[in-house]
Amino acid sequence: MTSIEQSRSPRGPYLRLGVLAAALFVVGTNAFVVAGVLPQIAATLHVNTAQVGYTITVYGIVVAIVSPVIATIFAKVPRAALMAVGLAVITVGVAVTAASTTIGSFTVGRLVAALGGAALVPAATAVAPRLLPPERRGRALTAVGLGFTLATALGAPAGTALAAVTSWRVPLVAVTIVSAVLAVLVAVSLRRAPTDAPLSARARLGVLRERRVAAALLTTVFLCLSFNIVYFFSSAVSAPVTHGNGSRLAVLLLLYGIGGIVGTLLAGPITDRFGSGAIFTAAITVEVVVFVLLTLAGNSFAEAAVLFAFWGLAGFGAGIPLQHRLVSINPATAGIALSWYNTALYVAIALAPILGGLVVDAHAQALPLIGDGAAVLALVVFTFTRDGRPNTHTATLNRPATQTTPPGGQK
User: Does the model's pTM come out above 0.90?
Assistant: First the structure.
């Protein structure tokens, strides 16, 4: 019996989705707020900005490698317990980071937080689509995706602003407190969430032998690379219109985040309606056009502002149909496929600072075109994933594809 069936209130699944979204908001804020305060952290720790920046790459590598390992080793652990422990580990890691006085302790804190994220994020994205009926899974993915979107649009900018008037440690302390509270909420509110039958490492790796899954995951890497190569170096890309003014950059990033919120909210329902292929293609097309126009914006701040908003709309909007594609390929292994999706995301997050760093100093304005190249590759690879309208596979999705915990069990 699923948690939907067990809930006495129709609002129950949506409240649980809200808790999951809040948890991912914390993870995203912790990841992105560091990028906004790199100079302050570097000054405090007596290192250069690049050394602190490399912790983003380290964070991404750890999550990418450890996520599938944790998913395999702790396959029999209830998902609520795994997610709660993940949040507790994040709490410890962020606390260590906030208290750091050396780059060594700062890196250790980031590594610990990455381990917590590796446990939490795949479990959360696997649980979310199981909380609603199959025809509403796009909405479920939208809900959890909104957590990351809000972290980009509100969490990271708010943390950066708070750090500007206090210290870079203060927003991290706030993240520590919120993650500790959410650890308790997750353990309580999601104790009856549906769970997949445990799979061996061989079975988990076997999912990758499915051509469509492998293509969707490679698409994920290219998609995430396309916008992160530009996002991580947005200060350099936008320099012709901001002229180094931090307030102007903040406005552009805020508009990017607002566009991301709109894209995330719209993508779920329209993916449920029209299918993942059409929506993904439309989103990628918009992103490609935006990046081309961004290189031609010249010194027009108004044009750049509009383009940043549409960039957020397209970039975040593309992620929902891609996840929907993974869920639809084989509902019986959807949770495993989504865990690999998160691994692919963090592979791209780890690669983007390295690849972008190779050209940012000499050719910053070429970064959007490099992003376009990655976006086009994402679209090409996506064609190798067979797609259809949601109602063409609703019957399959409606069948119980995975084992659930007995009443009173946890996930």
Answer: no
